[in-house]
Known about the structure:
Elements: E1 10-16, E2 32-33, E3 36-37, H1 38-49, E4 54-58, H2 62-68, E5 75-78, H3 86-98, E6 106-111, H4 119-126, E7 135-140, E8 143-151, H5 155-161, H6 169-174, E9 179-183
Amino acid sequence: MTHETEEPLVAGLLLAAGGGRRLGGRPKALLPHRGRPLVEHAVRILREGGCEVVHVVLGAAADRVREEARLPGCVLVDNPDWAEGMGSSLRVGLASLKAEALPVDAALVSLVDQPGIGAAAVTRVLSAYDSRGTLAAASYGGKRGHPVLFGADRWAAIAAGAVGDQGARDYLKEHRDAITLVDCSDVAEPYDIDTEADLVHLE
């Protein structure tokens, strides 16, 4: 069977390295949600949304996350420079996907601290894939948000620009005309768990 006739492989890339600086230094991956660490919920959403391959970038308290969270079948990648911000985690995650045994055609990037974004949004953004050059993102009320889909042909340029807490923001601004925006306002809420006040969103 040639690669053309196979289903494209879009892997989930979960950025879960944050130290929760504004949460008194509680690692976001371990915040309790429905009785389990938040990182487990985020992985389940990616799987239910259609990502069979899932890589998780860990940073703050990585050893504790490995001990306390049940993440079977996930590739867990440590980002020693997690404190530099999201950009370093994105670089580490894309490098990990590049080394994946199966050829990955695109990465669907999600953030551990957005539990209001469920499987329906993941499925919608996944369905926007049409080539290894695809750029797609969920949008909420016309504003771009997560998850974001990066075709593999774009990874090198995205990684090159991913510095500090920017992640792919600059790259996406420069290539805004190429982005397929997928409206997810009716199926997801894109709030972040950043401060003590945001903890009300956890169950």
